[in-house]
Specification:
By secondary structure, the protein is of the alpha/beta class. The chain is 37% helix and 23% strand. It has two domains: 167 residues, Rossmann fold (3-Layer(aba) Sandwich), CATH 3.40.50.300; 65 residues, no CATH class.
């Protein structure tokens, strides 16, 4: 049963630009779906509409149940968007603080979240003292502290070096396996999409819409052996071909 279903979703801006046109897609429980497509095809726009951060111009989003949306969604943006004046601990506390929960009431939950992303020794450190990868770990811990059913990730590792990116890919999959949430992940990297996903959704250039869906039928947990396997290479070629074709499709 899908957690959410996009029914002919559309996004039109006031200047007449059609960013998204009749996009339909079902996303299942505990699925890891990646969106790939040319710049400007509406990948990030879809995430913002799912999260309620951008109004829908047409179509609808149907949830499996009433409690699946709203507070059960967390969003990890491309930039960590941390409060520079607050410690790592207080940055992770933020969504619970906004929900009216005191530091002491949720101290154990925050400490557990920091331990999960390997930042326990840095709880009292400020963002300016952290590397880019560590800042993103804080952002992920903050997203996970609310125990979401759906985690939306908008190119979260794009600005990181390759070694850090690979490590965070593995950490994200470990969190996904442990907490059983559904993930929708936007990336421009074919390799990242193939490594992480159950399914890759390829979108066409503006107006954005789904032009291909590619299943990645490989078992989890995935390791570095998968990254250098013939199967991984074949999937990357298949996805790259679909992406190239999508760039040539115009409305």
């Amino acid at each position: 049963m899908p957690l959410l279903t996009l029914n002919n979703l559309a996004k039109r801006y006031g200047n007449g630009t059609v960013a998204l046109d009749t996009m339909s897609l079902a996303v299942g429980q505990h699925e890891f779906v990646s969106f790939l497509g040319p710049s400007g095809c509406g990948k990030s726009t879809v995430l913002k509409m799912i999260a309620g951060l951008s109004p829908i111009s047409g179509g609808s989003i149907a949830w499996e149940d009433e409690d699946a949306g709203g507070s059960k969604i967390s969003f990890v943006f491309q930039e960590p968007t941390l409060m520079p004046w607050a410690t790592v601990f207080n940055n992770v506390w933020l969504p619970l603080r906004l929900a009216g929960l005191s530091r002491e009431a949720v101290r154990g939950d925050i400490e557990a979240a920091l331990a999960t992303v390997g930042l326990s020794p840095f709880a009292q450190v400020y963002p300016r003292e952290l590397s880019g990868g560590m800042k993103m770990r804080v952002s992920i811990a903050r997203a996970m502290i609310t125990r979401p059913r759906l985690l939306l990730m908008d190119e979260p590792f794009a600005a990181l070096d390759e070694m850090t990116r690979v490590k965070l890919n593995n950490d994200t999959l470990a969190l996904w396996a442990t907490h059983q949430f559904t993930a929708i992940f936007v990336t421009h990297s074919v390799y990242e999409a193939v490594y992480l996903s159950n399914r890759i959704v390829v979108m066409a250039a503006r107006p954005g819409r789904v032009v291909a869906e590619i299943a990645v039928d490989e078992p989890y947990p995935r390791t570095d052996e998968f990254r250098v396997s013939a199967r991984f290479n074949a999937l990357c070629i298949q996805v790259s071909s679909a992406l190239q074709a999508a760039g040539a499709v115009h409305g």
